[in-house]
Amino acid sequence: MQLCDICNAANGNAFEKAIISTDNESDNGESKSNKCYICGNLALQTDKMLAKATELLSAEMPEAGSFSISSNIPKDWIVREDRVWDEKFSKKTESIKNSINRRIISSLAKATNKTYKTDAEYRIIFDYKNGKISTENGAVFVFGRYKKIVVGLSQSRWKCNKCEGDGCEKCDGKGKYYESIEERIGDPLKAAYEANDYVLHASGREDVDATNSAGRIFVIEIKNPKKRNVELDRVTKEIETGKEVSVSDLRAVPRKFVEIITESHFDKSYKAGIEFGKEISKEDIEKITGLTGKTLLQKTPKRVAHRRAILVRHRKIKDIGVLESGGRNAIVLVTAEAGTYIKELISGDDGRTEPSIAALLSTSAKCTSLDVASIDDGFIDFIIEKYV
Ligand SMILES: [Zn+2]
Ligand SMILES: [Zn+2]
Asked: What does the alpha-carbon distance between residue 30 and residue 14 come to, in Å, rounded to a whole number?
């Protein structure tokens, strides 16, 4: 086993010389070919690629004060690097990808006098399989709040799993099961930024059959945009004309907001329509409002059990009131901790949620409409004012 100097450096100079044979493998012929065990000498293209990247950054993008990079390292290097680790070390050292990235960043910064930034306008891609350099424009991140006005939209794009988006008989030729909030927001932004693609990152999601009139925070990543400055007010209006989704508070934010948004959880209020198995009385309404302050034990609902681990959540009902009632129907307003399953609070989910409205009233109860009425996310405005 022998390594080139780049792979050797990436592995903490585990071998004494850059290209070296270990004792037990020195005679097997592998060493005579002078090929690096991990990269087959492809990592040695680094200097040549760096020279090209330096030229590109200085000559073609003189106005860019910063750059970002990414390296495409063939998967089989990683597999063989694992083997080297297994044989030479008791614990893993830095990965070859990290080490190569660090080398590229420090050399480029030195050679071009530009600063490395994860959010830079230009991204240089080092493709180690072909020894080629390419560039794309760094992603733009747009923060906002969306309202979901109609039911029947999924949050993310949901491709047909049979045809992978090409269109087949299973999906009626559409290539997808649902239209999505992601497309309603992403398509107009993609056009405005003259970008290639987009990805929506949000703090939680509604069910397909629920609406959201509160406004849910999100960050949408706009990939490889040709433009970096866009009149976001105009895009806001354009999204609204679709009458399915509306957005507010759009603004460009740093990449780190993706993590801030997706890891945030907020208490929410829901407006839920309920249909009962009997006519409900004044005593029944009192039983429902008596749930205020109670903690629910919610076993993972049947409807999501196929994609979530089975566990028991403890979630507090902070407030519950009956807004309207008549005959077998009622509308309730529930404020609950983040992650409460509202449909199951109503139905009881065959005893998997306790207590429940159905069990309290000794009748069946079904959620017929669900709207996210408010989200307690003021904390995010504070972060944005402070850091953007
Ligand atoms: Zn190598
Ligand atoms: Zn299909």
From this structure: 19
Q: What confidence score (pLDDT) does residue 159 get? A: 86
Mean pLDDT of the region 267-296? 97
Q: Give 134's strand partners.
A: 125
Confidence bin at 90 (pLDDT 50/70/90): low
- Dihedral angle of Cα 284, 289, 293, 294, to the nearest 10 degrees: 20
Question: Which active-site residues does the annotation give?
Answer: 207
Task: Tell me the ligand closest to 169's alpha carbon.
Answer: 2
Chain segment 193-229, per-residue pLDDT in tens: 999 999 999 999 999 999 999 999 999 999 999 999 9
Domains identified in the chain and CATH numbers: 5-136 (no CATH), 140-264 (3.30.70.2510), 268-375 (3.30.70.3190)
Q: Which ligand is nearest to the CA of 77?
A: 1
Give Cα separations from 4 to 31, 40, 113, 216 (angstroms).
12, 8, 29, 51
pLDDT interval class at 27 (50, 70, 90)? very low
- Ligand 2 centre from 160 Cα, in Å? 5
Distance 177 CA to ligand 2 centre (A): 8
Report CA(197)–ligand 2 centroid distance (Å).
21
Cα of 298 vs centre of ligand 2, distance in Å, is 35
Q: Which ligand is nearest to the CA of 171?
A: 2
